[in-house]
Amino acid sequence: VRGPRFTKLKIGAGHRLDVKASGVFVLGVGHGNKLLSLLHDCHLTKVYTVAGLFGKATEDFSDTGKLVEKTTFDHITREKLERILAVIQGTNHKALLMYVHSNIDMKTQEAYELAVKGLIRPMGKTPPIITAIKCLRFALPEFQLEIHCLHETQQYLRKIVHEIGLELKSSAVCTQVRRIRDGVFTLDDALLRTQWNLQSIQNAILDCQLRVKTELEKTL
């Protein structure tokens, strides 16, 4: 479309997704670019489903990378996997406490539950932090995790899968990284490629306006 009304329309990207990942990808249009910056300053939790495959290791931790080794995995059980996940979550909670300034006694059960829900978070940049991690599906050699995190990259999540394989005296590659929540935005808000038209985009902006405004007022 050409004409004076459409000489400039600024579109900005929120938390990026790399080429091997999928899911919720937030864009800002016009004034939304300023709101993206404000949302970034809220340091909201993002949630992913991450699928893995035991029994092999690759150079880039993904199932499409160059194969480095193959290993056995028959000895792995769901209980052993969940033990490793509990250790990862505990270690990350300790790391989170280093960056949080709060009126809550961080040694209490209440503080732990708030951290799991993503309600306790640093208000500055930190290394990647996992606030919650659990096993959604276990069917050797495949498994699927749900990971709640801050300041991550998708490659960091693939490396977590690799390290879980090593901890279980085996190896593992990541077969899928899918973001299902980015702060106040979920998969239900996402537009499919077939919905990339003016009316659908306008509706999506209107549907999310109040949630964004509420979160910004609450956090900032």
TrEMBL record:
Signal peptide: none annotated. GO terms for molecular function: pseudouridine synthase activity; RNA binding. Transmembrane segments: none annotated. Gene3D superfamilies: Pseudouridine synthase (3.30.2350.10). InterPro entries: PsdUridine_synth_cat_dom_sf, PsdUridine_synth_N, Trub2. CDD domains: PseudoU_synth_hTruB2_like. Residues 8-153 form the Pseudouridine synthase II N-terminal domain. One of its GO terms (biological process) is pseudouridine synthesis. It comes from the Eukaryota. It holds the Pfam family TruB_N. Belongs to the pseudouridine synthase TruB family. This is TRUB2 synthase. The gene is Trub2.
